[in-house]
Amino acid sequence: MELPATSDSPASTQPQFIESPQTQNDRRKRRIRSVLGFVLRIAIYLLITIVFVAPMFWVLGNSVRSSQSIWGHVYPVSVLTFLPLDQFSIKNYMEALGLTSVGKGLGLDLSRALFISFASAITVVCFSLVSNSCAAYFFARLEFPRKKILLAFVLATMMIPQQVVIVPLFLVVNQLGIINTFWALVVPWFASPFITFALIQFFSEVPKELDEAATLDGANLFKILVNVVIPNSIPGLLTVSLLEFQFVWNEFYWPLIAVTAKDLMPVQVAIASQFTERDPEWGRVFAAMVIASAPVIIIFMSLQRFYYQSAVTSGVKG
Amino acid sequence: MGTMALQTKKRSGINWYKMRMHGAALLFVLPALINFAVFRYYPMIWAFRASLWDYSLLGGFRKFVGFDNYVRALTEDKFFWHSLRVTAVFAIGYVPLVVVLALLLAVFASQPYRGMGLIRGFIFVPVVTSYIVVSIVWGMVLNKDVGLLNGFLSTIGLPRMEYLTSIRNALPTLIGISVWKDVGYSMIILVAGLRGIPEDYYDAAHLDGANAWRRFIDVTVPMLRRHLMFVTVISTLFAFQVFVPIYQLTHGGPARATNVAVYYIYQRAFKFGEMGYASALSVILLVILMVVSLGQMRLMRGDDV
Questions:
Q1: Residue from the list B44, B188, B278 with its beta carbon closest to the beta carbon of A312
Q2: Is residue B151 part of a domain?
Q3: Residue B207 in domain
Q4: Do B122 and A52 touch (CB under 8 A)?
Q5: ipTM of the shown complex
Q6: What is the pLDDT of residues A54-64, one digit of tens each?
Q7: B187 plus B286 within the same structural domain
Q8: CATH of the domain at B132
Q9: B68 in a domain, yes or no?
Q10: How does residue A78 score in pLDDT terms, banded at 50, 70 and 90?
Q11: In terms of domains, do B82 and B33 share one?
Q12: Domain tally, chain B
């Protein structure tokens, strides 16, 4: 901070200038201001960090403790409130996952729920990659009379507030006879307007000349999609897969009403029914929270940039 | 497209070739279209149909009642009106808070200093975490006796408070939790918007003698208008659909203070089994929400001229 200030000032060429009290005053003011700005910035930074991170650290740190230890250290707030320096045991995790007799006795079974969550998220990702890629290929590349109307039909579904129409969705799925089966969890999400929209943009960036070359080589439409368009859009496909995985993983209201059998409950529904603050073992609840959010948070932390990009492309554009 | 191939086919009949190409093209989009039709459009049609009947899961379409469900909802059901009021209050608290905080955070977090990427990450973590986890965690943070927040307040000498169990504080607390969860999403969109503002605009304003505040008001805000509009509309949609924290933390209480519309519809449908009536309520809420969002877009587009 010191260095640019002195080299900026023309002190070396005009020695009399530095004597001027006016300039000295100015420079002091500027320095005070930059120091103040620095301090203020650090303060705001810390405040934001505390507000957003403290609850998470509290959960993570206390997931390896017993309730007595958690409650004993919450007041007064100190390092020990967050860091489990007095106690460390993975008992809470084992119980939450239903791997010990205590956990089983209480009806806790997050292992099963994790399996359902992974299975349903991966099923949705696979099916929606196929259907949305094909649809995006249609809109980005193929000829069809009045294609715009079909595009409007697809994009208008973005505006449907999902939580508001969930009761009618339940009625329709019930009519199909798949309520309370694994399929109820996944089938409604096999196509997504947001993903179709994002993929149209990714596919449009693949040069059209490649298609034409492939056509001359005798490739049909399907072969062009598989051999030309898809290999050139891998980052885009990866991004939408992650978003879809996160969406299905985090979904709560739909699985809550779509399945009632305990062995079909995905992890979010399972934690809501099996773990609440009324549980006398808060550490166990904390462990369940960590288990239920670790996959998506790990994916997010390793691929931050993709997330921001897709949040922006699927949102504001055009 | 190979013109050669097209011409040879043309002789044998242009319509056949074109129709085959169109038919093949249609096959690509058909699976997605069917899915949208069945799971996004058909429920709305079904909702309207079911709303005209006395309809339950076990009994099916028992009796045609016309618009009785709507009349009942709009004239007799004071709980429904109450839930709409609670939803409106929630939205009026939530939307401006999200937009203003997201803007401030975006401006702060897009400064060219070290550590700003990290803080964007911190603010975004709640967005990728599920609503149910966020709700349960905040329920424990806000616990009156052994929660983290009251522990902190006592540590710095402030009185302990009641949050979700107090009629007066419950709804503001839920607004706070939702803002905490969602603000990162809006922030990221505004950060992208800020990146798109040319540096020259700020330089020009600087030369004109505009201070930081004036530069913010005269350059940043107008240049971000479209992004701000998007964030406002999206947040309103979120606000009208809030469900999970209420389901998990307050069950609409205490004394119906947090009984928002989506939760009330859930209760009608799955606690009382009145599917027809719940469908009518869904249709009403859907119409209200559409009017609100279209009105917002119209209003903000009006600024353009």
A1: B188
A2: yes
A3: yes
A4: yes
A5: 0.85
A6: 999 999 988 88
A7: yes
A8: 1.10.3720.10
A9: no
A10: confident
A11: no
A12: 2
Q: Looking at the structure, do residues B179 and B256 belong to the same domain, yes or no?
A: yes
Interface test with A, best of B4, B57, B97, B136 (most A CBs within 10 A): B136
Domain spans of chain A, in order of start: 2-89, 110-313
Predicted local confidence at residue A5, as pLDDT: 40
Of A55, A271, A301, Cβ closest to residue B141: A55
Task: For A154-208, write each residue's pLDDT tens digit.
Answer: 988 888 888 888 888 998 999 899 999 999 999 999 999 989 988 998 888 888 8
Contact at CB, A74 and B265, closer than 8 angstroms: no
Residues B118, B39, single domain; the answer is no
Q: Pick the residue of A34, A75, A303 with the most B CBs within 10 A to test the interface with B by mutation.
A: A75
Cβ contact (<8 Å) for A171 and B50? yes
pLDDT of res. A95: 82
Q: Is residue B59 part of a domain?
A: no
Q: Which of A52, A71, A144 shows the shortest C-beta gap to B22?
A: A144
pTM, two decimals, is 0.86
Residue-range definition of the domain harbouring residue B285 = 75-302
Nearest residue on chain A to B48, alpha-carbon basis: A168
CATH 1.10.3720.10 for domain A110-313, yes or no, is yes
> B265 and B136 in one domain?
yes
Task: Let me know whether B141 and B289 are in one domain.
Answer: yes
A308 with B192: Cβ contact below 8 A? yes
DSSP, residue by residue, chain A: -HHHHHHHS-TTT-HHHHH-HHHHHHHHHHHHHHHHHHHHHHHHHHHHHHHHHHHHHHHHHHTTS-HHHHHHHSSS-SHHHHS--S---THHHHHHTT-SHHHHHTT--HHHHHHHHHHHHHHHHHHHHHHHHHHHHHHHH---TTHHHHHHHHHGGGGS-TTTTHHHHHHHHHHTT-TTSHHHHHGGGSS-HHHHHHHHHHHHTS-HHHHHHHHHTT--HHHHIIIIITGGGHHHHHHHHHHHHHHHHH--HHHHHH--SGGG--HHHHHHHH--TTSS-HHHHHHHHHHHHHHHHHHHHHTHHHHHHHHHHSSS--
Boundary residue ending a domain (B12, B36, B51): B51
| pLDDT, tens digit, 9 for 90 and up, residues B47-73 | 888 888 888 777 777 778 888 889 888
- CA distance, residue A12 to nearest chain B CA (Å): 27
Contacts of A135 in chain B (CB under 8 A): 28-29, 31-33
